[in-house]
Design a protein that fits this description.
Helix content: 55-70%
Protein name: AraC-like DNA-binding protein
Number of helices: 27
Distance between the termini: 135 Å
Strand content: 5-15%
Largest sheet: 6 strands, antiparallel
Radius of gyration: 35 Å
Organism: Paenibacillus qinlingensis
Strand order of the largest sheet: 3-2-1-6-5-4
Shape: flat
Keywords: Cell membrane, DNA-binding, Membrane, Transcription, Transcription regulation, Transmembrane, Transmembrane helix
Pfam families: dCache_1, GGDEF_2, HTH_18
Subcellular location: Cell membrane
Length: 770
């Protein structure tokens, strides 16, 4: 009877075990294979995304290089066919040819470059010059009326004066932002088709088992691993039609030449081209075979263990299962006594190790974050990483916010007067400095700070807007506030070297080198000071530079909509230009500069460029047609008066904000205090610093730092009229703890030192008395 009951129990247990193992195997197999299939598809689409990003980055750089190259005066002469005589024509042609050759020599990725003047019909490359080129060679002329400013052409055969090559070409209008009918010509730059394909090939390090190609929006082959397919239109193929009609990325299966193929495709947001990868299904899903075999082996082992448990272990097998179930449900149970089943105990041990390893891995990631942040920042500072799109996700993982351009680097050295800091204290104080710096920077801008060792720190700032000089001045204000906090709260002396503001991420190392160079001058400027690299460079004394500086009061009067002062300053600028005997082309360039600066001024106020000035090409043409400087001055004055009217209309539509009014009153009352900051306003008015910064920008057309600088400098200008007040006392009276910082800011804001300004004011007052 006992054996019969035992046999029945074993049968029941066997059925339950076999059912559970079979169900587990089926669910594991279904879930694992399905997930792996999705992961494999996602991986192939991710590779296409990498290809798209790499091509887009290279194409955008090509567009930037072409725009940069087309800024020279020789292009303007060539495109407009405006030469005073044949000697100038030959000189311009020689200079332009030399520049094109140097450009190709310095950029081996480019195959050829073209300049086509629609005015003269001339075509020039780095290899040849065709006067009034015929239709056979002047293939560029057909794109003169293209609706876009630029266009990427799929693979074509182009003759550059020496040879014919398969190239992908970027065609760009000249001037850069001109519409059809107003263009003077076209610029074009070519990349060899094979160069583009090699760029793609590097993404697939282990090779591509199938076919890889790129199509344009009409189905023409741009590049293909099979070079016999070049110049073919594949739109008639059914699976290509499916790809062309989809504006996004995706994948599907198709049977080609009797073989099942997996098709993956992605649409480029930049060019609209289709990046296509075709691979045999057997290759795509090859990793699934290993997983399937492992699952089958695992199932066989589990069946064997179950049968062993039925005949040899019986009821002792349930103890490890109880413990495993208890752990999975969060219950804590002790281990049982006696011998345990080897198979199931090993499985339990494996799960224990998995849970432990997961905890260790999470802890390791948390502990490694500071080191990863340091590594990324050092790679940015030494130039190992210079592509913003490639490094953006790494910065985001570290919680570091950066803008894609406008970077400035500072190098700080921390010390304590009268004490020799130990390495441990240096690390602690540098950590405090980095935290304070990042908190103040991120209230209005973006950036990060890291410890360089030896009591030194590097600070990388990133700005959303503003020209390099504005951002440099903002940095100096922030640093002065940081130095004041470190001195008052921690008793530390901080000396900071400041580099210049750079537009591209690849120029960060230059700004870093400049900041380190500036820091070397601490023996001259002393500790606990901000040393700008500008302090070490002699100013430029060229006539045109002075004239460019004279335009700043014009822009300020435009911002204030003071038409009288604006036209008076404008008249002084043009009179100085004429008295300096500037040639006509530089006077026109001065007009262009005034237009661009006025465009930046109204854009900062919130007026769109198209609304404020209309088509830029028409303005350039009107300036070019001016016969004398008085006509040019009148034209610029009329445009500035029109912009002033638009600014007044914009401001009349803007409502008042009581909170901002109270903040402005508070700033005007407390600007003399050294510690006045955005954080102090946030605490005073119970708002967050980012919200105050945005509110300030919307209602004052300026950020907090610029507004505070303006209040302080205007107050200093009034105090300087009294010759009995020393410059150091003026600096302290308007809120500057450091006199040298006040001198630098006053010079940048007014173009004069405080002493020079005082002398001018005293002379003006004396002349009025006489």
């Amino acid at each position: 009877m006992r054996n019969s009951i035992s046999a029945k129990a074993m049968v029941i247990y066997g059925i339950v075990f076999l059912f559970i193992i079979s169900l587990t195997f089926w669910l594991s197999y279904t879930g694992t294979v399905g997930k792996l299939q999705k992961d494999l598809k996602d991986t192939n689409l991710a590779l296409l995304k990498q290809v798209d990003s790499k091509i887009e980055g290279a194409f955008r750089q090509t567009e930037k290089d072409l725009l940069s190259m087309a800024e020279g005066l020789e292009f303007i002469y060539f495109m407009n066919n405006s030469y005073s005589d044949d000697a100038q024509r030959y000189s311009i042609h020689y200079t332009l040819t030399t520049r094109l050759r140097d450009f190709i020599a310095n950029n081996p990725n480019y195959s050829s470059v073209f300049a086509y003047s629609h005015v003269s019909g001339d075509l020039m490359t780095e290899e040849t010059f065709l006067k009034q080129a015929s239709t056979e060679f002047n293939w560029l002329a057909q794109y003169l009326d293209m609706p876009e400013y630029f266009k990427w052409l799929s693979t074509q055969k182009v003759w550059d004066g020496q040879k014919t090559e398969d190239v992908i070409t970027l065609v760009r209008s000249f001037p850069a932002l001109s519409s059809p009918g107003f263009r003077k010509g076209l610029m074009a730059i070519s990349i060899q088709e094979d160069e583009l394909f090699q760029m793609i090939k590097t993404i697939y390090e282990d090779g591509h088992p199938g076919h890889f190609f790129i199509l344009d929006a009409e189905g023409n082959v741009v590049t293909h691993d099979d070079k016999t397919q070049l110049y073919r239109n594949m739109k008639s193929l059914p699976y290509i039609t499916t790809i062309l009609t989809d504006s996004d990325s995706g994948s599907f299966n198709v049977k080609l030449d009797g073989v099942k193929q997996s098709v993956f495709y992605r649409t480029s947001a930049y060019t609209g081209w289709k990046v296509v990868s075709i691979m045999p299904e057997t290759t795509v899903f090859e990793p699934l075979k290993v997983t399937r075999n492992l699952l089958l082996i695992f199932a066989v082992i589990m069946f064997s263990l179950a049968l062993s448990a039925l005949f040899y272990v019986n009821r002792w097998t349930f103890k490890p299962l109880d413990r495993l179930a208890g752990k999975m449900s969060g219950m804590k149970k002790g281990r049982g006594q006696g011998t345990e089943s080897i198979g199931l105990s090993s499985l339990e041990h494996i799960f224990d190790e998995i849970l432990t390893d997961r905890e260790h891995l999470e802890q390791h990631v948390r502990d490694s974050k500071p080191m990863l942040k340091w590594k990324i920042m050092m790679e940015l500072l030494n130039g190992s990483r210079s592509d913003f799109h490639a490094v953006y996700h790494h910065l985001e993982f570290q919680g570091i916010r950066m803008y894609p351009e406008r970077f400035l680097v500072c190098t700080a050295e921390i010390s304590k007067d009268g004490e020799q800091l130990s390495p441990r204290d240096e690390a602690l104080y540098t950590y405090m400095f980095c935290n304070v710096t990042e908190e103040l920077i991120r209230s209005e801008h973006a950036g990060a700070a890291i410890d360089l060792g030896g009591g030194r720190a590097a600070v990388l700032l990133s700005f959303a807007e503003g020209d390099p000089e504005q951002n440099h001045l903002r940095t100096l204000v922030i640093l002065e506030l940081i130095l004041d906090i470190m001195k008052k709260q921690f008793g530390l002396s901080v000396t900071v070297g400041v580099g210049t503001c750079r537009m591209d991420m690849q120029e960060i190392p230059r700004s870093f080198d400049e900041s380190q160079k500036a820091l070397l001058y601490k023996m001259i400027f002393g500790k606990h000071s901000v040393i700008s690299v500008d302090d070490l460079q002699p100013p430029d004394r060229q006539d045109y530079y002075k004239l460019s500086r004279m335009s700043e009061p014009v822009m300020e009067a435009l911002r204030q909509t003071d038409r009288g002062k604006m036209l008076a300053y404008l008249s002084d600028t043009f009179r100085a230009a004429v008295e300096s005997n500037l040639p006509p082309e530089l006077i026109r360039q001065l007009c262009y500069d005034l237009m661009m600066k006025s465009l930046q001024t109204v854009s900062a106020i919130g007026i769109e460029p198209e609304i404020s000035m209309g088509p830029l090409s028409s303005i350039y043409e009107r300036i070019a047609k001016c016969e004398n400087w008085k006509e040019a001055e009148q034209l610029v004055g009329d445009i500035l008066e029109g912009l002033a009217s638009q600014i007044e209309e914009k401001r009349s539509q803007r409502g008042k904000n009581e909170t901002i009014d109270r903040m402005l009153d508070y700033i005007r009352t407390h600007y003399q205090e050294h510690d006045l900051s955005l954080e102090r306003l946030a605490s005073m008015f119970h708002l967050t610093p980012p919200y105050i910064s945005r509110l300030f920008k919307d209602h004052t057309e300026s950020n907090f730092i610029d507004y505070m600088i303006e209040i302080r400098i205007k107050a200093a200008m009034e105090l300087l009229k009294d010759k009995s007040i020393k410059v150091n006392d003026v600096s302290d009276a308007v809120g500057y703890a450091n006199t040298r910082s006040f001198l630098r800011t006053f010079k940048k804001y007014t173009g004069l030192t405080p002493t020079e300004y005082r002398e001018i004011m005293l002379k003006r007052a004396a002349s009025q008395i006489v």
